[in-house]
Write a structure and sequence with these properties.
11 helices, four-stranded parallel beta sheet, globular, D-amino Acid Aminotransferase, Chain A, domain 1, 3 domains, 17 strands, Rossmann fold, Dna Ligase, domain 1, alpha+beta, 360 residues, homodimer
Amino acid sequence: MTALAPGATIGILGGGQLGRMLAMAAARLGFDVHIYTDETDSPAARVAARATIAAYNDAAALCAFARAVSVVTAEFENVPAATAAALAEAGVDVRPDARALAIAQDRFEEKTFLNALGIASPPFAAIDSEADLAAAITRIGAPAILKTRRLGYDGRGQVRIAAAADAPGAYTRIGAPAILEGFCAFEREISIIAARGGDGAIAYFEVCENEHSGGILTRTRIPARVAPSVEAQARGAAQAVLEHFDYVGVLTIEFFLMPDGALLANEMAPRVHNSGHWTIEAALTSQFEQHIRAIVGWPLGPTEHVCDAEMINLIGEEAGDWARLAADPSARLHLYGKRDARTGRKMGHVTRLRLGDRDA
Amino acid sequence: MTALAPGATIGILGGGQLGRMLAMAAARLGFDVHIYTDETDSPAARVAARATIAAYNDAAALCAFARAVSVVTAEFENVPAATAAALAEAGVDVRPDARALAIAQDRFEEKTFLNALGIASPPFAAIDSEADLAAAITRIGAPAILKTRRLGYDGRGQVRIAAAADAPGAYTRIGAPAILEGFCAFEREISIIAARGGDGAIAYFEVCENEHSGGILTRTRIPARVAPSVEAQARGAAQAVLEHFDYVGVLTIEFFLMPDGALLANEMAPRVHNSGHWTIEAALTSQFEQHIRAIVGWPLGPTEHVCDAEMINLIGEEAGDWARLAADPSARLHLYGKRDARTGRKMGHVTRLRLGDRDA
């Protein structure tokens, strides 16, 4: 894979905050960024050299975009198959590979894939009918969670089934195709963010410890309170996925750490991830720069963390608290430029550094 | 001064690398940026939400720009008086105040101003004729440096006079109005970067130690090897200038540290400065974020340095070495997206962090 020289243009599918932070990392390395999004006035387009605003199935716009850039990446995994196909037809490299995006779009395919690589997950079953659901609850037990197979994020498209009697109502809400996942009484949630370069080298960021509320990440801290063997297990899982796809770019896997020390994969994201935002200040290379380095064929950067850190998401109206946060010397404030603070929308985040704890 | 809310638009005069890094810092805090520059395809415009490309004396374009933004700042001090006047007429706040920009545009006015505030400088004289130059050399002595009063930067518009006999030739090259500055056999060069907020609060970054070659900054390191009394003297000078102008924003003063411990002001810059680029990685708040915080009326951020650091400029063809630097794990690489690597042009910089030295 030939390294792209600074001055080349990187295409990014998606205009959200991940695209925005990727665009700024790319600019820092001397690249231009071209955002492709169906959203007007998107957070990412406002820090990019160029933007195409068009539907993800607009073949002509995709073709023109492909010709204007040297490589394409995505800030979200739900890139329609038609989009990936149109880009492939136009002859532009999409990194990571569209196969990784496709698997991560479907919770059932994703867990099946992870299990096949020897990466354990909570028990799950594909649900295409109410009868499937009844059978799955008998097998997996309750409580369990019924989720849409596709297009769910941040707690959307899922409902908890406390007991078998809840199943019909849950099925009515979620519909098919769905997946039933066994509920895990986990000790904590962690994630690993890793990258594979065009040269096949792999670099891991320190495992993060995450807290969610209503299915939305609220807090990440590093270091995670996990044994070295757990960290090694997480790295092994990331390595297996990265090598399977001959992957180029950043990959994230979220896990449940169970009381018995078992690590169960909950989700993989073929991209930079909210639980890696702390890397902007607290790692030598941010996850965003790392992803850019990988997709342009540069060597991966060092991932050591500079100091311990905690990242807190600003969700919906919480971003209205910007004046207090701006005055808090311990808060490194990031706001994404979203115009409308809808409930559950990620508006920004705050990173707090623990300088004194670096050697703790 | 009322704080601007995230989502407001900040206008920046100038499209170079300082504007680019200011724009990215503003975006991180949730602001949109509108660049005004006379340069097409400028480094700053490529990371900004909007750009106006027009001459600095285009009154109509300036008026439209002023109406489109909530506050204006500049990434360079040589903003024409007509530009500042047109913006003032349009009723937009320019921060820092145009008076500070005006004084910093003229080396003679600048040194006269600093001396009047009690800030010592090398000896100097205004030169309007060959006779002025001869008289000044007699008074100040040789070696000395003859500089244009206006529009010189990065070693341009200056010539060294080793002995009185060189004066006529130097005068022919530089012309009038000029300034003769006594040559200082300094022990080292340092700079202080400070900011004053809209609330009058002042914050200082750690004093930096600088090396120049051919009049261009080549290297900055922190901490500077200076006594606490020297640091206090530098802070005092910055405070005097900031308070004189009721200044809002970041200010830089460069000094010669003489063997006897005296500090002589060489130059002031009413803006973020090349010697402060290390703050991006190695200070809790970067100089760029600090400037944005000041001009939008937010509280200043903490300036503590996270670790010791060294910044090395990539000048002209040195940026062609990007592949080696990209592979160097100790190099945090910044490239400015300039298309043309002309001799003497600042193309990027590298920051090296010294994590182990933080408490040294």
